[in-house]
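Minutes, project check-in
Item: structure for the 354-residue chain
Input as provided by the requester:
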Amino acid sequence: MKRLIIVLAGLLELSCQSLSVDEMQKGKLSFYLDFPQGEVVAKGVDEAPDTNSFYLSVVSSSGRVYYEGLYGQRPKSLTVDYGEYRLSLLSTTNLEPSFSNPCFGDIKQIMIDSAADTLILFNCKQMNSGIKFTFAESFRNRFPGSGITLRDNNSKVLFYAYNERRYAYFMPGTIDVLYTKSNGEDTLLLRREIVEKQMLTLNLSYSPLHKDISSFIRIGLDTTRYWNNKDYNIGISLPQGTLSVAEAKAAVGEKGVMVFGYIVGTDATANSIRVGPPFSSDTYIIIGDSRSDFNSERLMAVELPSKSQIREDLNLVSHPELVGAAVILTGDIVESYQSLGSGLKNTKAYTLLE
């Protein structure tokens, strides 16, 4: 941890620990530079950036540039007119998709007025997301060539070679994973929503669904950056109109709905579910969009009707080996069921995906 305290007349205060705006009296603003190690160094992947090489920008709402340059070369004092300003402090000015380019810093709008001097605290955080891919042999056999293409929601693209080992960095938003056929046609393989501070590894394979093919998310909580590892089987093929668990939970009142998910457990309480044997309830199962994401907002209880073949075949008391199995179920979406919010009742059909 390093701390640098600089007193300046007239502009900002920078802190990587907190974010607030205070008012003072004499037009002087203080800089407090405090860079927590855990925010920028994680798992030995990145080194702490040199804050003197950050790019500082102070621009008024009218477009007048008061300062634009390296933080380490900023003037000792900066006088600005009263008004609204856009302030940014960034470790890189390249915010387009690129390799090995984490962006730390903050962007904010402030108002300088005659009533008081202003103290500003920047929240120095990772603003983009890093994505790394690994490719199983089954995937490379199914999609021959040298790599895939990544496309953000501004239609900016980055080619990711099969032998690439670096993180590709994107600003928050939707990322499409595309495979380009020999005729030049793009096939959408995967769409993923990313958020700031996320470090994501996607392991791509291709094969028919089987309950032993893992789809999981692992989040390391040892730093303030989110480290995720997720497997995707590109061989999934679902009937048209099939909803995910998240989509089904938002479709309360719909009848005869097909829902795809993974069986994760049963025996729900207000605070927990059982995800391994012994199980006690044979009247329902719980499904989710992932085999190991147990957030109740992304889980749904599914009724196994009394004296039905569905209950006999899917209840976890008799079939604990079904935990992790991929399944499509058809039923009616109700507002509340088994302490998990909206659920699926009147289940009429199911298909286990092998």
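Outcome recorded: The two ends are 52 Å apart (CA to CA).
No further action items on this chain.
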